[in-house]
Automatic annotation (TrEMBL):
This is PCI domain-containing protein. GO terms for biological process: COP9 signalosome assembly. GO terms for cellular component: COP9 signalosome; cytoplasm. InterPro entries: COPS7/eIF3m, CSN7_helixI, PCI_dom. Residues 237-273 are annotated as: Disordered.
């Protein structure tokens, strides 16, 4: 079987599948784990490939129990991966687990997704600062990895030194974010209504122009029919007039030889006997 090629510049239908499905096994394991086992499970899920959302795991009672006690750091680190950024980790390292290189890269990828929700064209300067990367080459490598991991879809603009994001992974949302999300959705609905109103106006204008054009065309066709009829009548009248005039003219007289004695120049000589 030939491998399926996927254009990473376009949104993929696998985006939601690749980010949600791998978490299920950890959710099932967490339901039967306690204490230390749950803490170790958190370490595994933070490093697991393809797992980029953690809200469902945070809702498991056995995981919630870790919020207080000896494994509070594990719970807080899981919370960081669900809602936080790499910069938050750097500013408060002592409050979190020490991350492995794989975990650091995952958190950097998630940070890119968060930045993409704020602006679709992210300057390299912002990314370098937020991700604590020292050079552009390493930054571009990280962005390319994020694209192939289905974290974002877009392209690098090396000339303008920015990444243009078409779509980004949806991260977990806190309860306190619900009002702002509702506001965004309300704004989107209002924008949709405005677009629909504009489309309706354009449709009405187009229909008006169409009807006007139809009436104009019908007027032209009627005018053509009238002109044709008028010309036909004129031609018939002219033919009729020319035919009647020919009958009133007298035909030229023909020379006739009847009743006339023909002249002759011949002379008759009497013969002498």
């Amino acid at each position: 079987m030939n491998p399926i090629s996927m254009d990473k510049d376009e949104p993929s239908s696998l985006l939601s599948f690749s980010t949600n499905h791998p978490l299920e096994q950890f959710v099932l394991l967490a339901k039967g784990a306690k204490g230390f086992a749950c803490a170790e499970l958190i370490k595994q899920v933070l490093e697991a490939p393809g797992v980029h959302v953690f809200g469902e795991l945070l809702e498991i009672p056995n995981i919630k129990e870790l919020e207080t006690g000896p494994y509070a750091t594990h719970f807080k680190t899981l919370n960081l991966f669900a809602y936080g950024t790499y910069k938050e980790y750097l500013e408060n390292k002592s409050e979190y687990l020490e991350l492995t290189p794989v975990q650091c890269k995952k958190l950097q990828h998630l940070t890119i997704a968060t930045l993409a929700t704020q602006e679709k064209c992210i300057p390299y300067s912002v990314l370098l600062k937020e991700l604590d990367i020292k050079n552009v080459r390493d930054l571009e490598d990280l962005i390319i990895e994020a694209i192939y991991a289905d974290i974002i879809h877009g392209k690098l603009d090396q000339e303008c030194k920015r990444v243009e994001v078409d779509v980004a992974l949806g991260r977990d949302a806190r309860l306190e974010d619900a009002s702002s999300i509702a506001d965004v959705l309300a704004d989107w609905c209002n924008a949709c209504e405005q677009v629909l109103s504009s489309v309706d106006r354009h449709i009405q204008r187009a229909n008006h122009v169409k009807q006007k054009a139809i009436r104009h065309q019908q007027g032209i066709e009627q005018e053509i029919v009238y002109i044709k009829k008028t010309l036909k009548t004129q031609l018939e009248n002219e033919d009729s007039a020319s035919g009647g005039g020919a009958e009133t003219h007298s035909a030229p007289k023909k020379n006739s030889g009847k009743g006339k004695t023909p002249r002759t120049t011949a002379k008759f000589w009497q013969k002498n006997t």
